[in-house]
DNA sequence: CTGAATCCTTCAGGATACTG
DNA sequence: CAGTATCCTGAAGGATTCAG
């Protein structure tokens, strides 16, 4: 996953794929999951932490900030005790969410197909290592 | 397996988590670019290397193999001299390509918006580091 | 409850050189 | 032309701890 800029390739990357920069906002391990989870409405920190299994508090926090910074999430703090913070998608992110669900549905439709392809590929390679 | 009636839980636990595995096939720095470039039709190695500026031969090779292994690309070797190898999308990948172009067009539409959001966010943080 | 700070590991990806 | 092999860096992410 691509992350932050690398030196030499920076200019080139910008030249070839202006989009990659923006696409990278969603390229992390958790971004898509967070956006999908947050799309259900104003959601609290712990309400995100629970369903997104496996995510650490740290990564949730970091991704939340980045998403907010990129104008994809809105963070609302309620000055109560204990503190209550809610996250929701911006209109821009809602558009993105539509495309994301497209991706997700594709992934669901082809989950097993991909698994089978990999198995077949590996098996073929094992039986015939020299082929190509 | 908490069965609490949260709005977020069902959707994400069943949707995003298993999906992430498949989505990760596309999550690399170059995968999307490669798929989009290869969508034009049968494309040779160097024909991919050129437009996808900044990609190293190594990464192109690695990603090509992974994409092939996952059943997204077909690799066709023509036994000629010099060697000629062509890559094209599988039907499954063509479906994916449709979703991908959706993502790309979103990214193009909102490229500047994201940049501005980031600038505003950073600026606000700079002037008022304690807020939140 | 909602984070921030710190330390440590893993691994994608870059540079470079070699090959059929 | 179309790759492979090796070495290395830097960023992502996990575990744990501290705090408002």
Structure overview:
2 copies of one chain form a homodimer. By secondary structure, the first copy, chain A, is mainly α. Chain A has a single domain, classed as Arc Repressor Mutant, subunit A, CATH 1.10.10. Helix content of chain A is 58%, strand content 11%. Chain A has a 3-stranded antiparallel beta sheet. The longest helix of chain A is centred in the C-terminal third of the chain and has 37 residues. The first copy, chain A, is elongated, with a radius of gyration of 19 Å. Chains A and B meet through helix 1, helix 2, helix 3 and helix 6 of A and helix 1, helix 5 and helix 6 of B.
How is this structure best summarized?
2 copies of one chain form a homodimer. Helices cover 58% and strands 11% of the residues of chain A.
Give the topology.
2 copies of one chain form a homodimer.
Chain A: H1 9-16, H2 18-23, H3 31-38, E1 43-44, H4 45-49, H5 57-69, E2 73-78, E3 84-89, H6 91-127
Antiparallel strand pairs in A: 1-3, 2-3
Chain A binds a DNA duplex (20 and 20 nucleotides) through residues 1-4, 6, 8-9, 28-30, 44-46, 56-62, 64, 77, 81-85.
